[in-house]
Fold this protein.
Amino acid sequence: MIVQALAFYLFAGILLMSGFMVITARNPVHSVLFLILAFFNSAGLFVLLGAEFIAMLMVIVYVGAVAVLFLFVVMMLDISFADLRKGAMQYVPIGLVVGAVLLSELIFAYGAWSFAPESVANAASPAAQFGEISNTEALGRVLYTQYAYVFQIAGLILFVAMIGAIVLTHRVRPGVRRQKVSEQHARRPEDVLEIQKVTPRTGA
Amino acid sequence: MLELWETYGIWTATTLMYIGLIVGVVLLAVAYYTYAERKVMGAIQRRQGPMMVGPFGLLQPIADGLKLFSKETIIPSQAHRAVFLIAPMMMFALSLVAWAVIPFNKDWVLANINVGVLYLVAISSMSVYGVIMAGWASNSRYAFLGGLRSASQMVSYEVSMGLIIVCVILCTGSLNLQDIVLAPRPVWMQVLLFPMFIVFLISILAETNRAPFDLPEGESEITGGFMVEYSAMTFALFFLGEYSAMILMSAITTILFLGGWLPPFGIAALAFVPGVVWFALKTALVMFVFLWARATLPRFRYDQLMRLGWKVFLPLTLAWVVLMAGILMSAEALPGQIKTDPALRKPVIETATEAVGGTVKGAVEGVKEIFGPSLRERLEKMEDQAEENLEGEEAE
């Protein structure tokens, strides 16, 4: 048990610290790198909870895909962040107000939190009702039966978002020469080549 | 205290021993993989390869390692120091960490976890960061270009690799690597998986930034890519990481497609050879493909690389996932699928074979229609035509 506790404090400590560094780091690339560290440590926390599937998805999706794009964008930016920071102090009061509102809302939500009576028994080990099966299988079983429609709708929303992103960023540029591989493959020697037999001293 | 030692100490000690063993073997394999690369490429290009240091040049990798150790590590003055140094370490560490879940033989695995495949995908998707960080932290244009290229390349090919892994998982019904090896695979299933095996082989070339997809290094256009500013040990870490990742990818291919430690083609008579030997031999076979491709193929152009990844592999693998799922479902071979009465099942298979046969026949005829007579025949015909013309002119 003591090892689990130590691991928890290690992951949680690094998570909080890197979360703090995300918002305080001077260099935006460092911010994103700390964000990645935070994602990674939260995956570690999921492993401690016994949710290894979620942990791996966390790393694959957030670390492997989302944060790569963040890093891409941030690295390409050419902004002087010292200039950006100059007037930042004047927004501190508004920031504090927003923060206080969010914090109080969180406190209220947590204070009024109650578990459904039938789920309290399952709260400690969410996969217990399925017996000795892995949590990947347990997730699959509820995702494709009980929550099949919700799951499909989530998929559709993502699909629409994907199409939207393509439509918004797609530019039709006239006059761009593209390689058409199928046309290149379809070229026949007859169309482009002529074989001439040249007899000596007469020319073609 | 004794109690604590009994509960954790022994476990920690044995685990550390295993880790040491695996790392040692992997590093030795990396050293001699570089030697094998130079020898194989030498043989393909009709040279001798290393032959001066030790018998047959066998001590060459050790000499190279010592040389790299003794060099000076240079950090560019404009580089972001911390990130610059973390990048190679991360690259190297990630390529070793993944070995934790690889089963070398039955129950010869450090961590037999239920999500082994996902763990491997996660680790391989993280190794992009080593490259991006190196490219950015070097504060050099060539390194940055190399880093960006590598990042988009690895992200692109990961997608189709994921779908290929889905195909395998459809057949095995488990994310555990040992279960994947041990899952029964009839011949027709292997035939179905074979195209995915080929695509996977090509994808791992791109995923490890190897020739013919070694654009991130592309020495002809961006000098050395993301590792152009690195020297001595920092360079050596990148180098070790790259080769270790290649061996790792070969091991993954072996586990997913070639049956891991099991004897080849399921020949029971060959089972007397220890499983590790089969595992090593099969991995070496895939590792040879890396060298073979490097010595044979010219480098892809960047747009061709992206086209192959997104317009060829992605649709192909996506369609294959659907196809395999459909076939497995109709053949009732999905893991855990409830089987119907065999008496009722036969017509399903017959109709399926008829449908597949019809499709294949149609496809063959279509291909014949498109390509017509072979290129050689057409060229010969043109030559004959030219000769006839010539004769006609002479007669005039």
Q: What stands out?
A: The interface with chain B takes residues 3, 27, 29-30, 33, 36, 52-53, 56-57, 59-60, 63-65, 68, 71-72, 75, 134-136, 179, 181, 188-190, 193-197, 199 of chain A (CB under 8 Å). The two ends of chain A are 91 Å apart (CA to CA). Residues 148 and 154 of chain A are 10 Å apart (CA to CA). Chain A has a mean pLDDT of 83.
